[in-house]
Amino acid sequence: SSLKLSNPGRICYKLFTKERRINRSSSLGPVQSLTLSGDLSKIGFYMLKKWTLLSKEKIFDTKWVGMEKRAYKLPSGKIIDDYYHLTRANYVLIMAVDKNGQIILERQYRRGVDDFVYELPAGFIGKKEDPLDAAIRELREETGWEGEGKIVGEIYAQPGTSSLKAYVAIFKIKKFDKTKIKRDEDEEMEVELMSWETVKKMVGQNKIKDMGALSALAIYEASK
């Protein structure tokens, strides 16, 4: 299936199915040769192509977010010279599971949506910091919990406007120490341990709306 999703795989698959249709509907016999040379669009095939980055100019840069004005050349030849690209540090999302299978959820106020939001423990990765080390640090500082974990996946958080990537970590938490909690001044939150069934029910009831949390929960469910 992964080969079928690649550009060469897509073409081979389409050529194969096209040949089968020709063989079944024609009395001319098997198709002797189908090559990948020439303009494939003339026979109904199209290969996806990347845009070409022509230039980039920094508009602003802050502690949390920056912006670049970029120019791209599209496969069609068209030039887009005002594509605005957000720059942010990558971050980690942490699925923290205790010995009873309960999941840590955080509930905190998010000014962007002016609402209280259920999320997973998360945080930005420092420069030259390993994603797993960042996950260990953020889990400890936000919740007081520690344990053993690993990175199990990656998410493109805003692929249309940014190269921002989130790493998903799964932790088996074993030890709690309230004195290890060191949150930022604006991080006022409720931390709860919830059963997996309760969490899934909350997803179905649209009570968990954070995109990163939903993606990480899906990865966790698929990896079980």
UniProtKB/TrEMBL annotation:
Keywords on record: Hydrolase
Cross-referenced InterPro entries: NUDIX_hydrolase-like_dom_sf (IPR015797), NUDIX_hydrolase_CS (IPR020084), NUDIX_hydrolase_dom (IPR000086)
The keyword Hydrolase is assigned to this record: yes
Coiled coil: none
One Gene Ontology biological process: ribose phosphate metabolic process
Domain (Nudix hydrolase): residue spans on this chain: 85-216
The protein's required cofactors: Mg(2+)
Record flagged with keyword Hydrolase: yes
A Pfam family reported for this protein in Swiss-Prot or TrEMBL: NUDIX
MF terms in GO: hydrolase activity
Protein name, UniProt field: NUDIX hydrolase
Organism (species): Candidatus Amesbacteria bacterium GW2011_GWA2_42_12
Organism placement in taxonomy: Bacteria, Candidatus Amesiibacteriota
